[in-house]
């Protein structure tokens, strides 16, 4: 869990800053409990409701990135949020003292990136209302967010750039990290459990799936059959799921499919495989063995990732140094 925060320090600093920049008047309609100050950094207050909002925004980002944590890890998550909030407040104070200004075009882009996640302007405004923020207040938040991000970029981008030689050295010393696991190009036909079939939904779906399998094994084209019989959106692509590797499919829902498809040969058609959605008929079109990716294939991504990690580490280190001379009052434990 803590590793997640170390690897995304820029995100955490930015999200916590976004909440720290909300004006205090925004808390007027909240209960006394949520309006209490839980943290003070160099005289700058941070409230309980702001901390809650920072946690919500960060969890939302984690969810969209596919990162999750267990309930037992919540205390560590909140502790990490508290530390990230302190870094955010300190870096904002430093940026403001350095005379950093927000680029209006970037502010507009930031607001739009948030607004477009809602189906309508009305839904967007209701979303802000749920966060206890007006449009005007959110624009001020965006201005401070952009200002802080630009400050971090100008300060650390020139220092964090990883050279091709450095990336090559890392690649040569960690080749075991650069294997592409076995991949299978698969297609499927889904026969869903039908609610209207009630207690016989399982039985009827299985009968239908077995009938389709018989047709396929007599020579019917799989893609054509998928377009005609499948209840999955992939029917538009003839059932094509593209190349998948172990772990790509959601374990709780489609683990049985993964176990079957990686045991099949090219050209093979499976018997019906049950999942929570219904019965799947699988077809393997191609297989790629586990392969070491060449340096040139991953060079650009590796340099970008190493640069991102170096920058995150520098920001964490810088925040730690700022904390050494800061006046920090933790008025509550997270």
UniProtKB/TrEMBL annotation:
Keywords: Isomerase, Rotamase, Signal. InterPro entries: PPIase_dom_sf (IPR046357), PPIase_PpiC (IPR000297), PPIase_PpiC_CS (IPR023058), PrsA_foldase (IPR050245), Trigger_fact/SurA_dom_sf (IPR027304). Residues 1-27 form the signal peptide. One of its GO terms (molecular function) is peptidyl-prolyl cis-trans isomerase activity. The keyword Isomerase applies. Residues 181-286 form the PpiC domain. Pfam families: Rotamase. This is PpiC-type peptidyl-prolyl cis-trans isomerase. It comes from Desulfatibacillum aliphaticivorans.
């Amino acid at each position: 869990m803590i590793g997640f925060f170390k690897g995304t320090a820029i995100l955490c600093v930015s999200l916590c800053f976004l909440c720290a920049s909300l004006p205090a008047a925004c808390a007027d309609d909240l209960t006394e409990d949520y309006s209490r100050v839980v943290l003070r950094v160099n005289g700058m207050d941070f409230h309980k409701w702001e901390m809650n909002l920072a946690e919500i925004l960060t969890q939302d980002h984690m969810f969209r990135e596919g990162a999750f944590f267990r309930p037992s890890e919540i205390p560590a998550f909140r502790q990490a949020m508290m530390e990230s909030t302190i870094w955010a407040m300190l870096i904002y104070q430093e940026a403001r003292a350095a005379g950093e200004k927000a680029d209006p075009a970037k502010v507009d882009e930031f607001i739009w990136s948030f607004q477009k996640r809602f189906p309508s302007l009305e839904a967007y405004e209701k979303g802000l209302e749920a966060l206890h923020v007006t449009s005007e207040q959110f624009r001020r938040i965006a201005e401070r967010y952009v200002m802080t991000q630009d400050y971090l970029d100008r300060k650390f981008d020139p220092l964090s750039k990883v050279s091709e030689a450095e990336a090559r050295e890392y690649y040569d010393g960690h080749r075991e990290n650069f294997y592409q696991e076995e991949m299978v190009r698969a297609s499927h036909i889904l026969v869903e459990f039908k609610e209207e079939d009630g207690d016989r939904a399982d039985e009827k779906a299985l009968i239908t799936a077995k009938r389709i399998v018989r047709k396929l094994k007599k020579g019917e084209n799989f893609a054509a059959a998928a377009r005609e019989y499948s209840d999955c959106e992939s029917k538009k692509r003839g059932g094509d799921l593209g190349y998948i590797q172990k772990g790509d499919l959601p374990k709780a829902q489609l683990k049985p499919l993964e176990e079957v498809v990686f045991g099949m040969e090219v050209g093979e058609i499976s018997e019906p495989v049950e999942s929570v959605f219904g019965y799947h008929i699988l077809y393997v079109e191609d297989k790629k063995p586990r392969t070491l990716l060449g340096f040139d294939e991953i060079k650009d991504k590796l340099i970008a990732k190493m640069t991102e990690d170096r920058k995150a580490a520098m920001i964490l280190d810088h925040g730690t140094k700022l904390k050494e001379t800061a006046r920090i009052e933790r008025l509550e434990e997270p």
